[in-house]
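Good morning C.,

I know you're traveling, so I'll keep this short. The sequence:
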Amino acid sequence: MTQESEASRLESLWAGDFGDEYVDRNLDAYDHRQAFWQMVIQRTRPQRTLEVGCNVGGNLRWVRRETDGLVCGVDVNRKALTTLQRNVEGCDTILSAARELPYRDRWFDLVFTMGVLIHQPELSLPVVMSEIVRCSSRFVLCGEYFAPSSVEVPYREQEGALFKRDYGALFGALFPELVLRDSGFLGRDTGWDDITWWLFERRSAIDAHG
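The tokens, ready to paste straight into the viewer:
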């Protein structure tokens, strides 16, 4: 299967009933994430923030509380964005796939994913990562399932729908303009799903900001 067809298949999967069911299962999955987002926003101090794959806004609700700046989210699932708009005030949302983000280069100070790159197929993953980096002027953050090498994980009877990888190493290898600033682990006991996170900053921003 080609990059285009496999990526399109998965985008259609998440945009349809499968994605709607994910929305319903995870409405209350974000209630204990405030401390992490306080740390991230205090450290990065973004004026413009974008979450790629924002779902119902469970992360953006905490980002919105910590910053007065522009807060945006994109997702392929219409039900998720409708729920976000109803529950989180002051967020701009766009129905869009991650492979072609509808923003100009370096428009945001912080672009992040949480549990989204894990659902990207091998061939289109670099495209999505490139779009994330393209849209950020300074910080890139991802929180995903970690494995030393790429391994597919069975996921609700869907093939090619979930992968553990070393996303930090992939960002570092594909985008030498990024510098790893911090990383860590977020376990189930802290309201997350046993994910590893990496925070990168552009070299040019480090030079500019000191």
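Safe travels,
E.
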